[in-house]
Design a protein that fits this description.
mainly alpha; three-stranded antiparallel β-sheet; two-stranded antiparallel sheet; 8 helices; 46% helix
Length: 194
């Protein structure tokens, strides 16, 4: 999940809410549905994650098949989709990319369903990894998204492309990353270092 957040510039909730159908291996892209502002967007699927994600999907397909065999109601879907396609919740394409290990009762419907992994799970593991790496700065899962944008800028990608990948409505929001990248792209060497 952390590699995907960094490699695609996802927000934490966007990553958690990914469905099988959102991953397009052939075109190396991810469809983010109902992101911030309830907008859809396309972002890049890192080539280095294709094989690990294919293996991951093989593993979770077993979980999906167990749920089907148990007669579970399927996964949560937005109301309009569930009303229009009543069986969609039980289809493989709508299954969570990162499902919770155990089903739970949906408090809105009192139906037993498989939900996605809880945000605190990744946050807890990420915090431990930052500490284990000996990083003294504050590091959050959202730092990975910032790093995605900053590193793209440092590698010469234009700000409009980065804006589109991040799903920012306003260019000014994306421009924040130019301040983060400026130090590394100035090319200035301090007189102290020479």
């Amino acid at each position: 999940m952390a590699k995907l957040i960094y490699g695609a510039g996802l927000r934490l909730q966007e990553c958690l809410r990914l469905r099988i159908k959102d991953i397009d291996f052939d075109n190396k892209r991810i469809t983010v549905r109902a992101g911030k502002g309830d907008k859809d967007r396309i972002t890049v699927l890192p080539e280095s994650l294709i094989l690990p994600l294919e293996f991951h999907m093989e593993d979770i397909k077993k979980l999906y098949e167990q749920d089907r065999a148990a007669g579970m109601d399927g996964v949560w879907l937005p109301g309009a989709i569930e009303r229009k396609y009543p069986n969609a919740a039980k289809e493989w394409g709508w299954f969570w990319l990162f499902p919770a290990p155990n089903p739970a009762v949906d408090p809105r419907t009192t139906r037993l369903r498989r939900h996605h992994v809880h945000a605190s799970t990744l946050q807890r593991h990420f915090k431990k990894a930052v500490k284990a790496a000996g990083i003294a700065k504050n590091g959050t899962v959202h730092s990975l998204r910032h790093s995605f944008a900053t590193h793209l800028l440092e590698n010469g990608y234009d700000i409009r492309t980065i804006q589109k990948l991040l799903g920012h409505a306003r260019l000014e929001t994306t421009m924040i990353y130019t301040h983060l990248a400026t130090g590394a792209t100035l090319g200035v060497i301090s007189p102290l270092d020479s």
